[in-house]
């Protein structure tokens, strides 16, 4: 089960997280190093500190954690280091009525690119363009699939904010009490591939 709600945004300075890959590395007798990617896309992990939050926000975190049964259910999270696509090319229109495309974000370095499917766009944040002109579209904010009408061969680009599907990475939630009105915790999150 995935809950289409975003975890409380009030993370403190000290927030860390991002992409993690899994690469095996073996040194051969010749001295050559052999490397192999164990996955074709990264797994995102986060450490989200909530420092000196007010009692009402403390209650929101406790409710979220308990409702999710710890690590059982996934939910949305805003990755403050990477949460937008801007004029991102997502394909070329074929001219079909009610055409659909998956929102993506492409990361490029030199001749190498990696494409990340954007499956949890923020509802109401999407602007879709055909050859640079804004067009009407319908977004499924639970999958990142956008539906639109455009003339064949028009370049389709998108701008929007997106969340990451995550789950708690621990079955324990602990708070420290700064004073009787403020509480702190550091929550570990991991991307939920099943979302």
Mean pLDDT: 92
Assign a percent range to the helix content.
under 10%
Strand content: over 45%
What is the general shape? globular
SSE string, helices as H and strands as E: EEEEEHEEEEEEEEEEEEE
Low-confidence stretches: none
Number of helices: 1
Number of domains: 2
Structural class: mainly beta
User: How far is the N terminus from the C terminus?
Assistant: 8 Å
Describe the structure.
With 195 residues, the protein is mainly beta. It has 2 domains: 2-78 and 164-191, no CATH class; 84-161, no CATH class. It has 1 helix and 18 strands. Strands 1, 2, 5, 6, 16, 17 and 18 form a 7-stranded mixed sheet that branches.
Topology of helices and strands:
Blueprint: E1 2-6, E2 16-20, E3 23-27, E4 33-37, E5 43-54, H1 55-67, E6 74-77, E7 84-92, E8 99-102, E9 104-109, E10 112-117, E11 127-130, E12 133-135, E13 137-140, E14 145-148, E15 155-161, E16 164-168, E17 176-179, E18 182-191
Parallel strand pairs: 1-6
Antiparallel strand pairs: 2-5, 3-4, 5-18, 6-16, 7-15, 8-14, 9-10, 11-12, 11-15, 13-14, 16-18, 17-18
């Amino acid at each position: 089960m995935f809950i289409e709600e975003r975890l409380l945004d009030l993370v403190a300075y000290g927030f860390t997280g991002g992409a993690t890959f899994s690469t095996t590395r073996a040194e051969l007798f010749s001295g050559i190093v052999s490397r192999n990617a164990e996955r074709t896309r990264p797994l995102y992990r986060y450490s989200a500190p909530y420092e000196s939050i007010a009692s009402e926000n403390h209650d929101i975190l406790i409710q979220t954690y308990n409702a999710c049964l710890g690590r059982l259910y996934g939910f949305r999270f805003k990755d403050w280091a990477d949460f937008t696509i801007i004029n991102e090319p997502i394909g070329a229109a074929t001219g079909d009525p009610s055409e659909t495309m998956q929102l993506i974000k492409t990361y490029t370095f030199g001749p190498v690119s990696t494409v990340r499917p954007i499956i949890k766009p923020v509802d109401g944040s999407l602007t879709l363009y055909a050859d640079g002109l804004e067009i009407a579209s319908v977004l499924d904010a639970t999958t990142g699939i956008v539906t639109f009408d455009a003339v064949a061969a028009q370049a389709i680009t998108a701008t929007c904010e997106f969340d990451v599907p995550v789950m708690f990475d621990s079955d324990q939630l602990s708070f420290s009490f700064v004073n009787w009105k403020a509480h702190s915790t550091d929550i570990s999150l991991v991307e939920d591939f099943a979302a």
